[in-house]
Amino acid sequence: MEDRRxxxxxxxxxxxxxxxxxxxxxxxxxxxxxxxxDSTSLALGTKTGYxxxxxxIVDKLDCIHESETPDVYIxxxxxxxxxxxxxxxxxxxxxxxxxxxxxxEICNYSYPNxxxxxxxxxxxxxxxxxxxxxxxxxxxxxxxxxxxxxPSNPSGLCALSINHSSSYLAYPGxxxxxxxxxxxxxxxxxxxxxxxxxxxxxxxxxxxxxxKLASASExxxxxxxxxxxxxxxxxxxxxxLKRYVNIRxxxxxxxxxxxxxxxxxxxxxxxxxxxxxxxEGDEAVTWTAYVGKxxxxxxxxxxxxxxxxxxQDRAFATVHLLxxxxxxxxxxxxxxxxxxxxxxxxxxxxxxxxxxPLDGGECMLAHKHRLIGDHDDDHNEVTGIEGSEVTEQTxxxxxxxxxxxxxxxxxxxxxxxxxSEDGGAKKGEVIPEHEFAAGPVCLDxxxxxxxxxxxxxxxxxxxxxxx
Length: 467
Fold this sequence. Notes:
By secondary structure, the protein is mainly beta. It is built from five helices and 30 strands. It starts with 29 loop residues before the first strand and ends with a strand.
């Protein structure tokens, strides 16, 4: 899933991507799966509700929230906060925003057509329809901009950088070729147009710092990485030569040094973003770099089309899944201080692989989790939760009125006290420095996301409804 996407791509239903199961349905039982912006959480939508899982330990999958909202086909969580966005098949034109730890709805918005994707960071919330995009200020949900008459985008393909200080938005600039529009969602203006591929786009993703954008087309053979905001091509990776494939998802590692790509085949590829030696006298860092120099030197003697293909880097590491031809979403994350590849598949499983950042090669399976068991006992064993604890309500945090007087932002300091991003810290405890965002939004659940009873009316059909 993000996108993401973000990092959030759902799985296809038997009714097709545009069917009632949502733009990215999972199947008869599942509706969607998406990782949050930093891959510390996994959201799963099903026909009977949605669940949020914590991804901090490899061998244990904790279900931190469960809702009975039926037929969910979009569910997105904002980092580790209590803000979650949900769209269901029963009301595909309506986006609901909840404070899940309080069990309250913050607000909801209606749109003129079916919602195909929702992306969010600490500054902006973006809603993608087939031929329009709505940009909201996430702090008060005010509709800031409506991009009308965008090229037909039936899959809702778009990407929003998780770096809120940039808030770059990428979406298709054409429905016939692979053009990418990069839009500044903070300053509300177009940054650049990138002619990325000859065929229509299939996947987009930003790195964490919003300095790079990766893309793949419907052919699925070549993955390209561009600099942002300039749009200069930096890397080109060839996924395969034998056949066209459907790229399911793209994801950068947290440090931006690796890029993973999953498809409808059984192989997940991980590419390493490394520069070739600049001078002929320099020793090639890797065998790939050495071969690249060889082909570069020989490019004057072979056709340009052939030499361009041969000089592209191959996968640094790979994973071979047990099955192919099913929808999946992948992500690279640091869990327990090691680089891991996460793959959520359409049959309701999460695979966690160890990635060797030095030597690459075939990744080893670290653990396999079943997201929803066939029986209660299986479910409890998989999630590590004992029966009633799944629906047990956590103690309600202090009321909005009791904390409204606190400053909405403050100096970035490891000694600043208040309420943590996930609502778990009590007043007076230290909040980790990484939970504070530079700028006006500090993701304090009480100050930034009060139980709003209304949202401002938007334009262009994005009209808010009373909660």
